[in-house]
Amino acid sequence: MPELPEVEVVRRGLERWVSGRTIDAVEVRHPRAIRRHTAGAADFAARLEGLRIGTARRRGKYLWLPVTGGGPAAQSAAEGLAPLVTPSVTHGLAILAHLGMSGQLLVQPHDAPDEKHLRIRVRFADDLGTELRFVDQRTFGGLSLHDTVPGDAEQLPDAIAHIARDPLDPAFDDAAFHDALRRRRTTIKRALLDQTLISGVGNIYADEALWRSRLHYDRPTATFTRPRTAELLGHVRDVMNAALAVGGTSFDSLYVNVNGESGYFDRSLDAYGREDEPCRRCGTPIRRRAWMNRSSYFCPRCQRPPRTG
């Protein structure tokens, strides 16, 4: 599943190629792609027609496009007709994208052949000649329309209001994170993957940051001092920025940016996916252990397990 760097690469592409454009028509080609929009495909498409897309935004692994303008619901109200769904008066609206395991948001020319797993097509009311396509092989992802949190400067969809800020967010509070980490009474990798505590970190970048920090994934959070927490956050930020610089991590064709290009950070991974390969620090073979229906990769010498008993 894409993590913060991969989603940020997509967000930047959407900001360049989609933000500021007005939606002309929406075609939903598979109902699962809008299953989180409970009013259905027809309502989803109709409510978006005529709306203008704002600046693409992201929090952790979550991506959204604020939308503004009248649209058909407002037009119906102006004509004295009942709207498809009563529009919010105090909230804005945003399209929330769930990429899931294989979701892709691609900007393609109108005449480009349809992808085999094309689920949603968004056409724009301009002459730029491109459209936005949501492609999803496994149909775990999708798009949905949500009210935004009142007064929130980022126009955060209410469906993800519980998600914590991510470590690349200027408003992320390092001290508050440390205090919450100590209160949580868990182990460090579980804490890093808790999106209500810190967002955007997934299995790959957790293993990479822990390797850089020489921390075992089962280290209790209650043992962390402020300097140790600060060091770990520094490594989390470093590994994410390094991944961003090369377009994220791609192990196959499922993760690509809006132009269909893959990232290259998998060539720079120090721990994840390197079972039995030598640790780049000490030469000890990297080990893999089953962990919470996932795998954890670590160096048994550099990242010694915590003492028990």
TrEMBL record:
User: Entry's CDD domains?
Assistant: EcFpg-like_N
SMART domains from the UniProt entry: Fapy_DNA_glyco (SM00898), H2TH (SM01232)
EC number(s) stated in the UniProt entry for this protein: 3.2.2.23, 4.2.99.18
**MF GO annotations:** class I DNA-(apurinic or apyrimidinic site) endonuclease activity; oxidized purine nucleobase lesion DNA N-glycosylase activity
| Residue stretches making up the FPG-type domain | 270-304
Pfam families referenced in this protein's UniProt entry, alphabetically: Fapy_DNA_glyco, H2TH, zf-FPG_IleRS
Q: Where is the Formamidopyrimidine-DNA glycosylase catalytic domain?
A: 2-141
Q: Which reactions are catalysed by this chain?
A: Hydrolysis of DNA containing ring-opened 7-methylguanine residues, releasing 2,6-diamino-4-hydroxy-5-(N-methyl)formamidopyrimidine; 2'-deoxyribonucleotide-(2'-deoxyribose 5'-phosphate)-2'-deoxyribonucleotide-DNA = a 3'-end 2'-deoxyribonucleotide-(2,3-dehydro-2,3-deoxyribose 5'-phosphate)-DNA + a 5'-end 5'-phospho-2'-deoxyribonucleoside-DNA + H(+)
| Note describing how the cofactor binds | Binds 1 zinc ion per subunit.
| Binding residues annotated for DNA, in chain numbering | H117, R138, R184
Show which residues constitute the signal peptide. none
**Cofactors, names only:** Zn(2+)
What's the stated role of this polypeptide? Answer: Involved in base excision repair of DNA damaged by oxidation or by mutagenic agents. Acts as DNA glycosylase that recognizes and removes damaged bases. Has a preference for oxidized purines, such as 7,8-dihydro-8-oxoguanine (8-oxoG). Has AP (apurinic/apyrimidinic) lyase activity and introduces nicks in the DNA strand. Cleaves the DNA backbone by beta-delta elimination to generate a single-strand break at the site of the removed base with both 3'- and 5'-phosphates.
The UniProt family comment states: Belongs to the FPG family.
Q: What is this protein called?
A: Formamidopyrimidine-DNA glycosylase
Source organism per entry reads Streptomyces sirii
